[in-house]
DNA sequence: CGTAGGTTTGACTGATCTCAAGTTTGGTGG
DNA sequence: CCACCAAACTTGAGATCAGTCAAACCTACG
């Protein structure tokens, strides 16, 4: 094992440490996982629906998203991901990909054999707890998204998505939630909220007009977080940031 | 331990056995879990959003659903459940309920201390695998629901929901998928699909008119499964029935 | 400096919602 | 056994949010 390996998983170790108390031995075990590094340009397919998967994919740098499509070709983004996220922990126990994974920006990913991850989970209780807690939070976020697309109107959906992104970004140590650059286009936001890109554009302008946010292309400034929270009917409980 | 205990968890043991190969010792360990039995009338709240939870809830008889609500009171059902389902496995590692659970029909439930379940999962590899596989399939279903409410039109959403219900019901050994009685009202279907009850009613009539299904109040007969599958854009892969 | 992807604008359409009323059904008590 | 009631279901008409189509405008990049 090289020190390069230790460094590679630093962002993952930090994320897992937020989810469960890891001993130094635990952290070392994570850092010593075998893996295959890869970099991918924006819009690269990491996993395609239907794939038989034998490696889990950890995002070390950049942004990615997971999506499903209908038979007639409509795309629904089901989650956005940032550095430190395990993109497909479900492949630990389900070998067939039920959805696709794609990069949003240029990204670095580590491919870890599922067998090695499985062994790690079986042998290290705290690591297991961190990983499964992460998977359960993942599911909680999906539930919130069902609520988001099922019950909220267009403006709220978008505001909610922005709140979640801002907060998760902050939690991952990627900057303040007040001002940030979106890695996704309005079409991506549309696919995540079940709207059209045109309507997303109109609602973003409406949000700016309401004084909820300021915008310059993909740069977003949330002028008034409380206003934003209300606009998006956002309550961070579902992110289970304090387990 | 009494034989009554063994019997109580029979439906759970069968479900877990479908998810992972369990030894007789594994099955016994599940059957020996401590629990508190309860019966609940239709519409009973089993868990409320925000609750601090110390017991997991296993549905042994009847139907239930999980739901979230917006600040202005709109309800989104995020999943339906039938006998054998663990209703809130997320409480194994997340103590705060991020959504509510309610019975659809009269039901019998077993409350199992999360500590006991946690011990079971730590000590029995196959049981652990079955339970986590179930949790991951749960998440896969949430993703499909995001797609369903986000991208499909009203008629397809309802048809998709009916396909899923019919198939899961069959898998659980509760009868044929061709003909069954719905445990939920049209309002429940509306809350699950992000529509209004009135529109659900119209679409159910349209589906009957299209020759996709026959209906007499809550009795449903799927005349032509292939037609139904097409109407709902339904592909069962996401249920991971063959792991 | 040309091009492609992303964003913005406007006019029109339509799926689904809202409101309001009526009907059927299953259960309950007299 | 029947009358009543509440809940669920059904029907109709009008309103609206978001989609569609078409075109123009940026702006980063090769």
Low-confidence stretches of chain A: none
Compressed to H and E, one letter per element, the order of chain A equals: HHHEEEEEEEHHHEHHEEH
Major sheet size, sense and barrel closure of chain A: 4 strands, antiparallel
Number of helical stretches of at least 4 residues of chain A = 9
**Helix content bin of chain A:** 40-55%
The largest chain-to-chain contact, stated as pair and per-chain residue counts, equals:
A-B, 49 and 49 residues
Q: What overall form of chain A do the CA principal axes indicate?
A: globular
Return the CATH architecture of the largest domain in chain A. Answer: Sandwich
Strand order of the largest sheet of chain A: 2-6-4-5
Strand content of chain A: 15-25%
What kind of assembly state do the chains in view correspond to? Answer: homodimer
CATH class of the largest domain in chain A: Mainly Beta
What number of domains of chain A?
2
Secondary-structure content class of chain A = alpha+beta
CATH-defined superfamily of the largest domain in chain A: Jelly Rolls
CATH topology of the largest domain in chain A: Jelly Rolls
Q: How far apart, in Å, are the first and last alpha carbons of chain A?
A: 33 Å
CA-atom Rg of chain A in angstroms = 18 Å
The count of β-strands of chain A is 10
Average residue-wise pLDDT of chain A: 94
């Amino acid at each position: 094992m090289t020190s390069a390996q230790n460094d590679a998983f630093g962002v993952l170790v930090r994320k897992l440490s937020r989810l469960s108390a890891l001993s130094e031995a635990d952290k070392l075990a994570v850092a010593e996982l075998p893996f295959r590094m890869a970099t991918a340009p924006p819009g690269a397919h990491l996993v395609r629906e239907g794939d038989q998967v034998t490696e889990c994919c950890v995002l070390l740098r950049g942004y990615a998203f997971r999506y499903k499509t209908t038979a007639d070709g409509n795309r629904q983004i089901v989650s956005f991901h940032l550095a430190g996220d395990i993109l497909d922990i479900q492949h630990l126990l389900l070998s067939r990909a039920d959805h696709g994974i794609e990069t949003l920006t240029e990204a670095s990913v580590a491919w870890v054999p599922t067998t090695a991850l499985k062994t790690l989970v079986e042998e290290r209780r705290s690591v297991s707890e961190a990983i499964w807690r992460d998977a359960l939070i993942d599911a909680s976020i999906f539930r919130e998204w069902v609520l988001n697309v099922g019950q909220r109107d267009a403006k709220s959906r978008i505001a909610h998505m922005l709140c979640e992104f801002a907060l998760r970004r902050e939690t991952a140590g990627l900057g303040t939630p007040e001002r940030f650059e979106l890695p996704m286009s309005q079409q991506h936001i549309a696919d995540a909220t079940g709207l059209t890109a045109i309507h997303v554009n109109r609602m973003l302008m409406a949000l700016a007009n309401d004084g909820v946010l300021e915008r310059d292309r993909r740069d977003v400034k949330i002028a008034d977080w409380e206003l934003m929270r209300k606009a998006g009917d956002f309550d961070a409980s579902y992110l289970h940031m304090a387990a």
